[in-house]
Amino acid sequence: xxxxxxxxxxxxxxxxICIAAALxxxxxxFDTAVINGAVDALTEEFALSPALSGFAVSSALxxxxxxxxxxxxxxxxxxxxxxxxxxxxxxxxSAIGSGLAFGVIDLIVWRVVxxxxxxxxxxxxxxxxxxxxPARVRxxxxxxxxxxxxTGIFVALLSDAWLAGSAGGAANELWLxxxxxxxxxxxxxxPAVVYGLMALRLPESPRFLVARGDLDKASQVLLDFTGELDxxxxxxxxxxxxxxxxxxxxxxxxxxxxxxxxxxWLGILLSVFQQFVGINVIFYYSTTLWRSVGFExxxxxxxxxxxxxxxxxxxxxxxxxxxRVGRRPMLLAGSAGMVASLGLMAVAFSNATLVTAxxxxxxxxxxxxxxxxxxxxxxxxxxxxxxxxxxLVWVLLGEMFPNSIxxxxxxxxxxxxxxxxxxxxxxxxxxADIGLPFAYGFYAVFALLSFVFVLAKIPETKGKELEDMDxxxxxxxxxxxxxxxx
Length: 486
Fold this sequence. Notes:
The protein is 75% helix and 3% strand. It has 20 helices and 4 strands. The longest helix has 30 residues, at 138-167.
């Protein structure tokens, strides 16, 4: 393993640019969670069936897939900063369009437009942060992406609760003759503008600058922002890892294992497991979920905000631990906690009573103590996810791929994540019709599989330089295979 001749110093400027880049994660979280407080009102407004309601919620995820897929190529061609500006513009357009939607079709269209921005931000932020961060604190700085996401979720849910409370309900008129749920969407315009202005002030990634041949600018960024003392050595390492400035292509991901390199499959499976444990069911449908078990709309929104605050707190804990404890132990502990909490939620909802309303719709009602068990387990699940799989998957996706394929590999892994998110979000209303015990049992099974996957396949990346990542991961995989054979 190679290393710089001198230790890397950490300065406040690299923290600042990482926070600014992570604002894309804030919009990512805001955009995906804002639907939570609006879903019941817009379902009533547009008289949607359960299936169409589920698609309206998850439609943005289709845009996320496309945005993630194309972001890698655009980032390699034009740079990381232009992609951030494109994402900010898409967020702004989507916020205004969704708030002014006159039917479910154009609402879905505007949500998909916002999804393009979310998908692009989900690729570019972790890649940029990993590329400007010193190795010894890269886990902490990379976790800022997840902190920004959960903060965006919290602000979206808080604004939903405040707007609904101000109007006396999400379906009631608030300002300018428009319902509160419309203002929930339009509130996103503010952080979208802030993100765009911040992106204009960020330096370009030194690894992109080296790939483009602009070594003077890359040297200046490394010296001024990343704290690198031996700039010439670092640039030489970057050039070597990039394959002497060879242009990156999607075909670089090809390998013998089902058509892709093993490390790309690891990234894809990490992304899929992160979604198949059902975390976004909590954030997309929690208000509806808690109303179905007896809480009023205002109480359900309050519980959802409390859950979001919990998510922020445990993400901060993860940031404090990730570069000390390591990625693998935290992922394994998180998987174990999710298995236990999801399993208990399945048991709790198996004790629910179905009540049929006059319109023929059925809702589940939980009596004590099962209503308390469900509420506690939902928050335990958020804690287990938030301290592990939430932030650490983004950290790993930003750092586990070698420089020569990072942007494209991250784009493919992120696209897989959004496809998995779409599948889980769209199927939840169907799963709920089958029965909530089935839904939470399904997620518990995948939490268990995620534990096995990390134990068997994921190497530790703590403290490793990006330029050495490919060699280090190859060696560790070989060591694991030899250990398994003996």
